[in-house]
Amino acid sequence: MGKESLLQMSEIKKQFSENLVLKGVDMNVLSGQIHALIGGNGAGKSTLMKIITGLYQADSGQLFMKGEPVQFNSPGEAHKKGVYLVPQEPLIFPNMTVEENISIGLKQTKKVLKQKMRELNSTLGWNLDLSRLASSLSIAEQQLVELLRGLMRDAELLILDEPTSTLTHHEISSLFKIVKQLAHSGKGIVYITHRFSEIFELAHHISVLRDGVISASGPVSHFSYEKLIQNLMPEGKTFGSTMSVDHCKQEEKTEDKTPILTVKTLFGKRFRSVSFNVLRGEVAGIAGIVGAGRTELAEAIFGISQCVSGEVFLDGEDISTLSVRERIDRGLVYIPEDRSAHGVFSIASLKGNLTSAILHKGKGWFLPFKQEQKIAEQYLRQLSIRALNSCQSAESLSGGNQQKIVLGKFLAADPKVILFDEPTRGIDASARMDIYELISELKKKGISIVLISSDPEEIMALSDHVWVMHEGKLVKKLENDAITLDQITSASFGVEEEVTAP
Amino acid sequence: MKIKWFYRWEFFLLLLFIVEIAIFGWISPGFLHVNNLLFSMNDFMFISIAAIPMTLVIISGGIDVSIGSIMGLCSIILGVSWSHGVNVWLAVIIAIFCGLAAGLFNGLIILYSRVQPLVVTLGSMFLFSGLALVISGGSKASGYEGISGFPDAFVQLGNGSFLGVPNPVWFLFVMTAAFCTLLHFMKYGRSVYLVGINSKAALYSGLRIKWISLSTYILSGLGGGLSGILLTSYFSSARADLGSEAVLPVITAVVLGGTSIIGGRGSIAGTVLASIVIGFMQYGLQAIGLTSEQASIVIGAMLILSVMARQSSFQKVMQWFRQRKSNSSDLMY
């Protein structure tokens, strides 16, 4: 195995507006090394990878390629220096052949390229038919195409971003073989993953990224599951000590024990056998990492997407077959994760936005202009939305205020249960506090909230109890004192299952 | 905020209309006669009447290029029904239903095939016009002569006048009033805008997005049907190829009227004004001696220029707003 340094990062910093994402990252990838990079959501993994591949430029710090200082201003420059990123979802042109997909953007003649492709194919022992249409490839094969793309560009450092997230078990093991083979031939590999088992099977070296710094780094033999978890958790955080929003949580137990929302053995595309109850005036957290199936579950409960089987009851009534509108009318609303794509009507007025979910309510076919103005003013005030007037367009507001507009639109529908998906994603600190306060106010009013969040601190601070979702299943229910960062993090990464399994 | 109406696109169109009339009046004084102006509108009323419901389709994020073929199909159905002994007014009702059905067909195919509206309606454009030709051939009315000899009462529909105003212009008034109410004052209209701005968000807000987009195509079919009936009456002849060249003027009127081709923005008043501006331009240019080919060059250039003007004036408005906002936020903090 080569011991030559391939890519070295030194003191990489990156800031977005006021948000310091990378606070000085040092990392060294050797040739022939499989270097696993792990980190929670928002730790800065993707930002770091975008800097390495030339999509972003670092604010300060230096990259060295084989000891020589380099700067990449575009992915093309990174390719020339031998750095290639295989994205999580392969980017394939479906109507082109494998050969065309691989040779796109390369300048040599077709003949030379084909020769090279054949050679690579045979030295690696892959039997990928170059004349096949890309649309007929499985996702694993598409990844091979992406790898070949990188190798054709003489890449020496390949970055694999969660390559196994969409693969079957069999495909994973063949991918592992390929990755090991590539490392053996001297390529450096940065392997990003959420799955601990893969790390211990594959990696030579581990780096843990936490809050924009490498919190631990070393050969894989120096790590255990417990140590990884330890390093993943936010520094110095223990339950209840540093949380500024702790007051939001109500100590007194709700008296009413009848569930308002009941989900019974719900099966869908990305989740399996999900059952849970939510009581009146309760905040139920659903924790987990991105891709665990939480949004898919919420959308199925709300009726946006169909589920394979199972039932949803709201206040004792079976709502499994109702339309979205009927569910809203009965008091179930879903505040979507992707605010701009699913929540906001960008060029519509604020009042148009705020009344969009209750447009069909009320008598008559005509727009109740006066009432609309009243509702708009009420929610602008109640949610302290910073706006000039109710006629300005929603796109003119900041992210936090847009989120409040979406929240207001669904509050206007007078809900009993709110499915709140990533309520504070991409909004600033003050708007975040406003949202937290709102959640506790709603709770006092007896409204139940299902809080979906990738931020374990947010979940801990606000929830009465927590379900942790991992790969489409609710793997753990945490209550009272059991709601700890440790428990949430380890269950989110599916560690417990893997450790107890022989 | 008082200054805001001045920046509205409809105001610019009104200005354009006045300037246009003034220039033509200056070149050929006979042009300015009120009756001349009013009755020359008959020539392009069918464009305006089809463009009004088309505005809804485009605001909701769709498009219907089969509108011209729907005109021809409704015209020939009217003619064939009448020539087979059906009462002419009953035939008119049949033609209206035919327009609605054509729109429903478009809407259903678009909803359930999930193919882009442009592609679907391009297909149905050929389908409807082919159907019209087959029907007209089957009734031994050759494509270009058409079916004529309609009763006087029906011919008066497109040629007569009431209180000195030609009937087609009355139709325009009624259509404008009805669709203005529908789009700007009714819940339905609001939902059309919301679907056009962000159909996903509309879905998550519980709007019936399928019904809304389907209904806009039905309305567009209705517009094509009414337009076809009016043309049949105006020429007192039912032909399969009536309206075959209407589709581009109709969409041009909608887009020049300020409707965003990607949906979410637009108004009925804008569409009506724009269709009148284009109609008078065509008429006026020919009145001062240009051939229709030469007139097309002028109209094309005018279109491009005014859409460019709209883009830049829009940016100015936004700039002005931003300044206002920063000024007021300076005061706040």
Tell me what you see in this structure.
The complex is a heterodimer of chains A (502) and B (333). Chain A has 502 residues and is of the alpha/beta class. Chain A folds into three domains: 5-232, 3-Layer(aba) Sandwich (Rossmann fold), CATH 3.40.50.300; 239-249 and 256-331 and 416-502, P-loop containing nucleotide triphosphate hydrolases (Rossmann fold); 350-414, no CATH class. In chain A, 34% of the residues lie in helices and 24% in strands. Chain A is built from 18 helices and 20 strands. In chain A, strands 6-7-8-3-9-10 form a six-stranded mixed beta sheet, sandwiched between helices. In chain A, α6 (169-184) links the parallel β7 (157-161) and β8 (188-192). Chain A is elongated, with a radius of gyration of 25 Å. The two termini of chain A are 31 Å apart. Chain B has 333 residues and is mainly alpha-helical. Chain B has one domain (11-314): Orthogonal Bundle (ABC transporter involved in vitamin B12 uptake, BtuC). Chain B contains 14 helices and four strands. In chain B, the strands form two sheets. A two-stranded antiparallel ribbon of chain B has the order 1-4. Chain B has a two-stranded antiparallel sheet with strand order 2-3. In chain B, a hairpin with a 2-residue loop joins β2 (161-162) and β3 (165-166). The radius of gyration of chain B is 21 Å and the shape is globular. Classes of the chains: A alpha/beta (502), B mainly alpha (333). Chain A binds chain B through residues 302, 304, 323-325, 327-329, 334, 336, 341-348, 352, 356-357, 359-360, 365-367, 388, 396, 409, 413, and chain B through 185-191, 193-194, 197-198, 200-208, 264-265, 321, 325, 328. Chain A: It is an enzyme of class 7 (translocase). Chain A: The complex is composed of two ATP-binding proteins (LsrA), two transmembrane proteins (LsrC and LsrD) and a solute-binding protein (LsrB).
